[in-house]
## 1
Amino acid sequence: MTGLREIETVRLSSLKINLLASWMAHVVGLIVGFFLMPYVLKTLGDRSYGTWIFISSFAGYAGLMYLGFGSTISRFVATFHAQRDWIRLRQMVTVTLTIYGLMGLVVLATAMGLAWAAPWLHHWDGESITQIRLVILILGLNIACGMTGSVFGGVLHGIQRFDLERGVAVFSDIVRVTATLILLSADGGLVTLAAIFLGITLLENSIAIWLVFRSVPELQIGPRWLQWGILRECMGFSAYALVGTFASQLMYATDSIVIGCVFGPQAIVPYYIALRLTDFLRKPILQIGDVAMPKAGQLTSIADRGAQQRLIERGVMIAMVLAGGLQIGCWYFGDDLIRNWVGEKYASSHQLLLILFGAQVIALPLGVLRSILFGLGTVRGPALMFMAEAALNLVLSLILIRFWGLTGVALGTAIPIVLIELGVFLPYVIRKLRLDPWHLAKATFGPILLPLAALWLYSDTVTRQLGPVTGWPALMAVAAGGGAVLLGTAGLEWLIRRPWRGSPAAVARA
């Protein structure tokens, strides 16, 4: 019994360290992105910045060239590393690196074709066509380099060295903000921005390669390990992971393209502000799924059903309390945040933020379950449902934008999430993971009701007493107070429930 407890303690400690490292990296990335975006927007202006978003949204579809191997690397490396199967680990990494190298060449050829055809593809609202072509070519090279380097980031992810992987991201963020502040100017700004992205990608790749070979000295890469049999083993997983990747791009990149095509690139900016804030807020919760996926794969390899159940309950509960707390903050203080961040001009972004992140309150906890299913090797059902959700999103956005403009696009994103995630995916995942719905609801909803109620009361009181919150010091003080209320109440809830967990009956069940 003592040995089992020691093993469980080590597992939980590793999980907590990885999650903490992910959140610390996100905090740095959030600070950099949050304060860098207004600077870039002000330097480039709405027209050029809208053009940058428009091109970047198309470039995002190059993620399909990963062929679903991003999740595959993490999942299979976790399994092979846990089993200490160095032969298949070497084969997996070598084959994936070869595939990504070939796909990188395809991306470069496509970028050259798009750069040549740029004048006929879109009306660029007065932007220099030479500059547009250079941006497309540099972004194509950036994607090609990023693809090959991502293999090594996937290895760090698979061996659960999130501290190293996130450390590289923190260092890159610091370099990126420094380079942007020094080099960016209105003249040639788009080319400079693209060049900075390329430089950061090359830097990240170099560091990741060095860290991987230090962390896994048994890893070797070379023609002798180019065994295509390993590809067949992974293809079933990666094919449906590719469907999920395509669905994600359709969900989160197409909105900007739809708005740009209907209203022009400049109209993208208010929507993108809400979308960017949503991305900032959902990133720390997404880390829960990122950390849980390789852990689920590891637990599957050692057939530890009890640890899987605890992983599910804790992951979903944390995601629910964070998503709920952030939505309360958006409701009461999102308008103040946007005004302090980018100015009164973009006040309409608040309504879009409430719709977009409101849908994430449902999507993020269920996203943790989706990641765990991926870690267990179940990808077909979740991927196809996500694809249906993305297709419905595109159809509704194209229809509703004609009636309600940007709000219609936001609703086109939110409605499919509510319908498919709750109506289709949740029953599926309960059946697939053999979960008891009542027990899951009690284990996840029960501990979060008091903290969220306390945060709601705090936010309402502050709003009534202070009115609009002006200035970053006041806004940060309010946010810190909200965090203290949420965490303090959650700690109190934990203390109240702890005697029940420590009862003889609970110990016997454990």
Note: Residues 164 and 211 are 7 Å apart (CA to CA).
## 2
Amino acid sequence: MRIKKAILTGGGHATRLRPITSLINKHLIPLANKPMIFHAIEKVVEAGVEEIFINTNPGETELQKYVGDGGHWGVKITFFEQTGGPQGIAHVVNEAKKFIGDDPFIFYLSDNIILGSIKEMTDEFNKNNFDCMLALSKVPDPNRFGVPYFDEAGKLIDVVEKPQNPPNDFAVTGIYLYGPKVFFNAFEKIEKSARGEYEISSIHSHFLKNNFKVGYREVTGWWKDTGQANDLLLANRLLLERMEASEFPNHGSIDKSADISGKVHVGIGSQIKAGVKIIGPVMIAENCILENCEIGPNVTIGSGGELRNCKMKDSIMLENSVVDADIKITDSILGKGVSVIKKPGQEAEGHKMIIGDKTIIEI
């Protein structure tokens, strides 16, 4: 039975990414100038999904506004609130039971970024009639994830959530495939963990201990759980590097003196003025202004951004932010409406800063 439905995550509070996520849903943070959740949607649509169900925090409105009803991708998208507060990602899936019914489905954590396709994984799942299929990836810190356990013959026998002493360097990534009915039956048999959550690893452990047919496949290429700022920057860089040159059209106005090399996208209404040097890959959204600055490589600039008299590389700048100062910015994330400007007049005696919680500044 071919998988036509998928559940994607759109909730959570992403406290490790504050202050960026204080005012924006984590899943809307742009990677390669595209909201993170769009990358997840594209992956499941490529795998043949026709209906997508996205969980949200209570009262969420921004996610629905950005994502829409799915028409952009030729699918149907439905949003649902996770009731009862955060109770683990297995609980997120169970909340979508009325949408999934008895059909097989993909569960995709939208903050997972992979460079490869999941179509081969879904094809293998269909061919072998698995009850469940897991995507594995080698990581340097498996104790942060669910970890697969194998017997001496290499057979998968268990999955343990965040073990203190992992027996291998594999992690179960946030991409899961389930056959008809099996997930919801298993959910009724698991209990909350010590941290008060219904762990997805408990579902998989139940399957393996009760002789369900569980397959696995190592993620090819590159995978990242974007739980921290450095993960976002790395994902942004790799996505930019992988994109084809045809995905970097120029629609703005570019001064003849500007020095542009590599893959560079300039959005509609953007102005690249005199004194600008851009080293691709760089993506500049709509209605931006760049003047007397050096940008790139691996930079994305959100709509309405302004950069003057500065240098920036390996960074993400969200919409309507301004940098106008003799400063070199690297490995940074600037949120919406940020201003980094030089004090007018005489040399400042100090630096004026209005800084939110969890901000990091290196000077």
Note: The longest helix spans residues 229-242.
## 3
Amino acid sequence: MMSRTEKLWAKQDQHQGDRLRLFSAVATEVDASTVLYPGSFVDVAPSFVFPSVVYVDNDRRAEQFFADDGGVEEIIAANTIDQRARSVTFIPADYQTDLELADQSFDLLISLYAGFISEHCSRYLRVGGSLLVNSSHGDVAMASIDPQFRLVAVVNATGGTYRVQTSALDTYLVPKKPQSITAETLHRLGRGIAYTKSPFAYIFRRLG
């Protein structure tokens, strides 16, 4: 019989291996040892690829999931792509609050389906570090108007395979309809901007 932890992960990993393929592709472009994943829920897949990950979520199910240290370790061990030691930390909190983490202490900040992560958590990302973000809830648009970020790659998905592209970036982030994009507008809309091209995710670099 599957444990609660296994059931939560199986639901997260409905397309088996999909998250591993995603973060493996990201790792070809991003050299990261320390990763911060606000709004992670139970998506422990970054730990399959990166050695030290801090997960943040205020969902009680996520807290219960990560409290099962042994179960989480088994999931990671069954999916890791190298033999490096893994460090997994879970913070049961709203990422919009002070997480009591040192500023500029992470190489990679992940923002997937969880709101305006870049707006609240960029302080924890080192200068030169990377932001992996998708267009859900408008965080790509928020990052695109933030002068501290520059687009350096996009992640395309085809048939369950992820590929990082670093060329022709000027053809991305082009709105389908001319519009003024501001933080106030994005907060009011609470959703992403429709662009002429729709990759799975974008990778920005923090400039300062």
Note: The two ends are 50 Å apart (CA to CA).
## 4
Amino acid sequence: MAATLAVLGGVVAAEEWRVIGNALERPDIDAFYEQPPDAAAGEPGSLVKLDALLGAPFASRAWRLMYRTTDVHGDPAVATGVLVVPLTPAPAGGRTVVSWGHPTTGAARECAPSYGFDPFLGIEGLRFLLDRGYAVVATDYVGMGTDGVDSYLVGATGGNAVLDAARAARAVPEARATDRVVLWGHSQGGQAALFAAERASRYAPELAILAVAAAAPAADLRGLMSAHLDDISGVTIGAYAFTAYAQVYAEAPLDGILTSAALETVPEMNELCLLSHLSELHRIGAPLVGDFTTRDPTTSEPWATLFAENSAGSEAFDAPLFLAQGLADELVVPADTERFARHEASLGMAVTYHEIPFADHGTVAYLALPTMLGWLDRVAAEQVETAP
């Protein structure tokens, strides 16, 4: 009992220090996100800035990263994120990297997970992954945290940011990160992880993608948008997505799809973060339900084509795929994820599809962890057994 209490006391003390460390970092945090003049000049995945974090999770080291990446058009871009590694010694060959894609948080700087008071809070499964010896890197994507064109639900840009985050992890010598990569994401991050998997062999051929896991991924954007054309979720997602697409694609101006009322309101919505300002977002967006778009974007050009181009599933990849879906999810429709799983399997891929009856969109990634981690353990073991 005394030993147990001593361990618990140590954990509590470590968490108290984490809070203190996070607080000490706040006064100078904005300076980190300011880009130097040469920020985008360099190879994708190379570091622009690195800052050791005081408030690292228990028994780990962590850094805030600024790194180079590439957008959907092939132009240089800059992204930020965090990297966490366990304090336990790395294996002789180094650590496998888990590159995490976060779900929708918003578009403004303060919505970037790495900018938050606790930049590790939303990395679903972080503690279990660290305990297994993984290095975990979590991107903010392009256009959040630091300057850049918004990239919300722009698949190629998100996928590149996820892959380049893994490259950036390798650029931190103390992390002992290798070219072995697991991709894991939720919702928007599921889309990013899937695009990363599809693009990896061309975009980052030096990385060995060992496994890909996604919880309620935004894989089928036409299906997602179609399911929410006339509700508050559609207005909220659309406020972020249409704004991003208008910035990224010259052929998709906002006044070509949004009503005059939406054009007035959407800029204000884009200044609010989903998790911390959900009630305010819904209050502002509620009057736009039924008066948001001038036409159905899922059947009108150029939006229908853009949604198709930014939907996953256009090509197969070699790594095994795990998909989790909550049957109580009212945002990503379960039938869409099941259909996507069948589509991926039809391409000859090894797909594990896991349904959770009582999980909704917010809880599905957490509730999927026991099954997902068991699957990942088996995949890792099989790869060790078959290694030459």
Note: The mean pLDDT is 93.
